[in-house]
Specification:
heterodimer; A: D-Maltodextrin-Binding Protein, domain 2; D-Maltodextrin-Binding Protein, domain 2; 16 helices; 12 strands; B: mainly alpha; MetI-like fold; two-stranded antiparallel sheet; about 75% helix
């Protein structure tokens, strides 16, 4: 009888202890988890921010987890919709195209930063997506400012100079591309039929999107989109593009010297630099504008992301402090990241950091950061709306049909209806 | 009377656990999914909206494309695979064949590989500058590399080649098992009557294997309707949704775009209806007239 009591007491005690241990851990040392993608870029940035933050806050544990962007998206969607916060991170990187949908689908899940940061301190086109009702949700991170990376040696062999790449139009770009194809036997750029980033960039350079300022689908009466598709078709018809099917082939094409230029976000710089044998052969010019569209400027954006703090996961306070004091205002960190990962920050104060005025040897001594910062300030701000990827998948079909010879107005008319159904939920 | 009743309860007790589990994890989600399919809204903001999702299905061209692709894979791939599996299994069942174990393992092996792993290997084999193009060009079968993944027709062909490679061995094992259940004396009798090899296959093997053929056909049909891994990993549904399947479209609606649970549930119900109809037809066709 006594023995039983002792055992019972021991069991009870152990249960109490077992229950108490994790509770203590939660109260005492705070730990935050960060999810992001891209080992060479975002993860490095997160780790450097972690080092800086831990110097000031040695008691805070920061765990940086690498995860594919698609997986982050899927996990956030499943967990937030079931409101089960186990295993979710405190800080997460979310692409600009996607955040509006999250903020709408899951209100009250994201921490706001209005009390610690000012939206005006960041590039305007970045805060265009994460300010809702005057409240800033999240801290803008990398610029997705578009640029034309080109092989100077090939352009010269084709009879053109760096001068010709300034104030570039797509028509001129195609003309140069044809000369390059003829003289050097390589294509001008890659195209992926399932990814029409080129059209997105062209549209934004003209200040329009698949959706209008109010978030309504704008396809059939969108002159900027029509001009973009016309330009895209010209590019395809010129026969100067190499088809690729995924990221690896895309990067492989310019690293192996199979294409003479890459027109995409400035974040590609680190991948361009990966081909060390091409050192000094590359130049960077502004994004080409569309000559048929008056609103189109030599600046656009693609990709780019911001850091967000999940409110209900656990250490929201610490996480918010971490993001706000590092990515939100630390100019020295931005300077360091410019050196380490060629980050083009969207923090306005970062424009004056010393590393931005350093020339890049890989790009023949060109001060690429100054150019990127300059173009960043010229990017037209558009409302990405909530459905960029849903509309993009629909539009790839429309674009392939039009490139294949279908009538533009009629096709876009059909897809307008289709797109409206897709966003009307 | 009372005794008899008691006896009857016992078997029920044995099936109660599985009954509870199947209700909890199969029937309940099915009903819940149907209720969800009557709601619209983004993320968690769902509202009842009647048949709105089902109406949208009728006008959704991406859905039509996904349905078309799925049916295309079904009517092209399943017959090819079944015939191939039948042919291979009757060859492997031949008494004179040496190294039987080796061939059986070799042909069955694809189906123990991970779906994702083999998809990624296929993707690299069939890349424009990949192994398959290099081989075909060195054999002078083609002059220029085929853009397998970025051309509509070839991308679809590639998916069909991939799933045939993956699943033929699986079906073959069923047929082999079936063939071993057929007594040799039947074939000996046929041989004495002067039946040729093809006649034996057509008039004896096929009818005797009928129940197994029916089973594998239904299984393959269901499998093809639920096809997801291959288009997801090999072509990502591209170029421009040319290889997208219904399952992948459901995935996109839930995880790639802003989550639309209601519409995704409605699309998944289309698969349910299709499977029921097709299985019913196959059972009717395969049924003996007695």
């Amino acid at each position: 009888m006594k023995a039983k009591k002792v055992i019972a007491a021991a069991l009870t005690a152990s249960m109490v202890l077992a229950g108490a241990v994790p509770a203590m851990a939660e109260d005492g040392g705070s730990k935050i988890t960060i999810w992001a993608w891209d080992e060479n870029f975002n993860i490095k940035a997160a780790n450097e921010a972690k080092e800086i933050y831990q110097k000031a806050h040695p008691d805070v544990e920061v765990e940086v987890v690498t995860m594919a962007q698609d997986d982050i998206v899927a996990k956030l969607n499943t967990s937030l919709s079931s409101q089960s916060y186990d295993g979710l991170p405190d800080v997460v990187l979310i692409e600009d195209y996607k955040i509006q949908g999250y903020l709408t689908s899951y209100p009250d899940e994201f921490e706001e930063f209005t009390d610690v940061l000012k939206a005006e301190d960041f590039a305007e086109y970045k805060t265009g997506v994460n300010v809702v009702d005057g409240k800033l949700y999240g801290v803008p991170f990398d610029s997705g400012v578009a640029a034309t990376f080109y092989r100077k040696d090939m352009i010269e062999e084709a009879g053109y100079t760096e001068e010709d790449m300034q104030n570039l139009t797509w028509d001129k770009y195609i003309e140069i591309g044809q000369a390059v194809k003829e003289k050097c036997g390589v294509d001008m750029c890659t195209l992926d039929p399932s990814d029409i980033g080129q059209i997105r960039m062209m549209m934004q350079s003209a200040g329009v999107w698949y959706t209008d300022a109010d978030g309504n689908v704008s396809i059939s009466n969108n002159q900027g989109l029509k001009d973009a598709i016309t330009t895209y078709k010209k590019l395809v018809d010129a026969g100067i593009t190499k088809q690729v099917a995924d990221w690896d082939q895309f990067v492989g094409a310019f690293n192996k010297g199979e294409v003479a230029s890459v027109v995409t976000g400035c974040w590609i710089a680190s991948s361009v630099k990966a081909a060390e044998d091409q050192n000094g052969k590359w130049g960077v010019a502004a994004f080409p504008k569309m000559s048929e569209n008056e609103a189109s400027v030599n600046a656009s954006s693609i990709g780019g992301a911001a850091w967000y703090v999940l409110k209900n996961v656990g250490n929201a306070e610490t996480a918010k402090d971490f993001v706000a004091t590092t990515f939100g205002q630390d100019v020295d960190l931005m300077n360091q990241l410019a050196e380490d990962i060629a980050l083009v920050s969207t923090l306005n104060a970062a424009a004056d950091v010393p590393n931005y005025s350093k020339g890049s040897d890989f790009f023949g001594g060109q001060e690429i950061f100054n150019d990127f910062t300059q173009w960043t300030s010229e990017v037209p701000s558009v409302n990405y709306g909530m459905h960029t990827y849903a509309l993009e998948d629909i539009m790839t079909e429309a674009v392939q049909a039009i490139v294949g010879g279908a009538d533009m107005d009629q096709t876009l008319e059909e897809y307008q209806a289709q797109a409206e159904a897709a966003v009307m939920q | 009377m009372r005794d008899k009743k008691k006896v009857n309860i016992k078997p029920w007790l044995f099936i109660v656990p599985s009954l509870v589990l199947i209700t909890l994890f199969v029937f309940y989600p099915m009903i819940q999914a149907f209720i969800t399919s009557l709601q619209t809204g983004m993320g968690n903001n769902l509202k009842f909206s009647g048949a709105a999702n089902y109406k949208r299905l009728l006008t959704d061209s991406t859905f039509r494309k996904a349905l078309f692709n799925t049916v295309l894979y079904l009517i092209v791939q399943v017959p090819i695979m079944i015939l191939l599996a039948l042919a291979i299994s009757s060859m492997l069942n031949d008494k004179r064949l040496k190294c039987k174990g080796f061939f059986r393992t070799a042909i069955f092996l694809p189906c123990v590989t991970s779906l994702v792993a083999y998809s990624i290997i296929f993707k690299s084999l069939f890349a424009t500058d990949g192994f398959v193009n290099a081989m075909l060009m060195n054999l002078h079968i083609i002059d220029a590399p085929i853009a397998w993944i970025t051309t509509t027709g070839f991308a679809r062909a590639l998916i069909i080649i991939a799933i045939t490679w993956r699943w033929t061995g699986y079906n073959m094992i069923f047929y082999l098992a079936g063939l071993q259940g057929i007594d040799d004396s039947v074939y000996e009798a046929a041989a004495i009557d002067g039946a040729t090899g093809f006649q034996k296959f057509r008039y004896m093997t096929l009818p005797l294997l009928k129940p197994i053929i029916l089973f594998t056909t239904i299984n393959s049909t269901i499998g093809t309707l639920q096809l997801f891994d291959e288009p997801m990993n090999i072509t990502s549904g591209g170029p421009a949704n040319a290889t997208i399947t219904i399952s992948q479209y459901i995935y996109n609606l839930l995880f790639k775009y802003q989550p639309n649970f209601g519409y995704a549930a409605a699309v998944s119900y289309v698969i349910v209806v299709l499977i029921v109809i097709l299985s019913f037809i196959q059972m009717k066709v395969g049924d003996d007239k007695e």
